[in-house]
Amino acid sequence: MEVTWKAAVAELVGTFALVFVAAGSVIVAGQYGSGLVGEALAYGSVVAVMASLTARISGGHLNPAVTVGLWVTNRIGTFRAAAYAAAQFAGGILGASLLRLVVPEVTWRATRLGTPLLAPRVGTGKGIMIEAVLTFFLVFAVFGTAIDDRGPRNMSGLAAGLVLAFDVLVAGPLTGASVNPARAFGPGLVSGTWANWWLYWVGPVAGAVIASVLYWGVFLRDRESAAP
User: Fold this and answer.
1) What backbone torsions phi and psi does residue 16 show, to the nearest 5 degrees?
2) What are the distances in angstroms from CA 153 to CA 73, 116, 142, 159?
3) How far apart are CA 155 and CA 64, in angstroms?
4) Rounded to an integer, what distance in angstroms lies between the CA atom of residue 113 and that of residue 100?
5) What are all long-range contacts of 188-191, with beta carbons under 8 Å and residues at least 24 apart?
6) Count of alpha carbons within 13 Å of 25, Cβ hemisphere only?
7) What's the DSSP call for residue 33?
8) Count of CB atoms within 10 A of residue 166's CB?
9) What total of structural domains would you count in the chain?
10) What tens digit of pLDDT does each residue of 105-160 get?
11) CA angle at residue 22 from 19 to 26, to 5 degrees?
12) pLDDT tens digits, 53-105
């Protein structure tokens, strides 16, 4: 893996692309009616591509929740984790800023620049649970492909992209299926949308930690203890 600053740049670029495409697909769906399937394909495909491209440089996290999950299981050091998170949030802000620059104001304001929001009848407690479960699926897939040496590591980006696609399909209308604090924070900051902003940090981080600890504790701890 590359030195930390190069890896952080890879995380910034990857998250920039993620937010630009994912939030942009929400804007397009709202304005031109491409629908939920379009949002799911956009989010899933951009993650599949960018995670695959950055995997050998930074690990292809592109998500502070994923980084936290790997950090709590000692897969990444504290300094590198902090650098990744800073780069991911910066990439999210840059992606959202470019969207605001290139999309007509009346268009992006209609969807608040693609900022994820709760559906009217979904309370904050349910929203946190939904985001946590969706992120659990993502991080479990990351461990099963990119971390566990028995898994198909060359498919880690595709697996993450497919998980995000079905996350959007099942919960996009409920919470926006952000599953990523940087994905929510960038558009929220640039558009000035702060409704339930903390939910999109708490839910994904909680889901990531649970998935990481579970996978490591059940499937990896004994194997690592037995390693020479």
Assistant:
1) -55, -50
2) 19, 30, 9, 10
3) 21
4) 7
5) 188/115, 189/93, 189/96, 190/93, 190/96, 190/97, 190/99, 190/100, 190/113, 191/96, 191/100, 191/108, 191/109, 191/112, 191/113, 191/115
6) 24
7) -
8) 14
9) 1
10) 999 999 999 999 999 999 999 999 999 999 999 999 999 999 998 888 889 999 99
11) 125
12) 999 999 999 999 999 999 999 999 999 999 999 999 999 999 999 999 999 99
Query: Which structure tokens are listed for 185?
Result: 């924070």
Both tokens assigned to 187 = 């558009």
Residue pair 117/197 in contact by the 8 Å Cβ criterion = no
CATH number at residue 41: 1.20.1080.10
Q: How many residues does the structure list for the chain?
A: 228
Please answer whether residues 11 and 94 qualify as being in contact, where contact means their C-beta atoms are separated by less than 8 angstroms: no
Residue 115 domain boundaries: 4-226
User: Nearest 10 degrees: CA dihedral of 122, 89, 27, 102?
Assistant: 160
